[in-house]
Write a structure and sequence with these properties.
Layout lengths: L12 H22 L3 H21 L4 H25 L6 E3 L2 E2 L5 H30 L1
Antiparallel strand pairs: 1-2
Helix pairs in contact: 1-2, 1-3, 2-3, 3-4
Length: 136
């Protein structure tokens, strides 16, 4: 049983269906990548990313959800770029020093990580400090 001060997070049914469809598209994208089925992998980038952005937009008022969903958008972006780099053969091309085309996926991966680090190190502690005051 939740504590009286715990907030309950509920997901409206249409949002939940959209999240479930998002998982399906994401799996299809990664199956296309794994099996080197370029048309499937490339086609699934768009619905996967669009739904991730929609989910992020719809949950933007809840800071924890916003941070995690933004991280997912950047994760899918990095993952998709990596897949494209392998499909089109620039994953092993040197870009700078020992960094190759696929290493460029680190930029969105690290952006998502920085968003989560900010949330857990700055935003969440801030929310924890203000929560008891707001409840009184």
């Amino acid at each position: 049983m939740p504590e009286p001060t715990d907030q309950l997070y509920t997901i409206p049914a249409p949002y939940r269906r959209m999240e479930n469809m998002h998982i399906l598209f994401w799996l299809l994208k990664d199956i296309g990548w794994c099996m080197i089925w370029k048309p499937l992998g490339l086609t699934m980038i768009f619905p996967t990313l669009i739904i991730a952005v929609l989910i992020t937009w719809r949950t933007r008022d809840i800071k924890a959800e916003l941070a995690h969903n933004l991280a997912i958008v950047f994760w899918i972006s990095a993952n998709s770029y990596w897949m494209v780099s392998e499909f089109f053969g620039f994953d092993t091309v040197r870009v700078w020093g020992s960094l190759t085309g696929k290493h460029m996926a680190l930029l969105p991966f690290l952006t998502g990580l920085l968003i989560l680090l900010y949330y857990y190190l700055v935003q969440k502690p801030r929310e924890s400090r203000t929560a008891p005051i707001a409840a009184q």
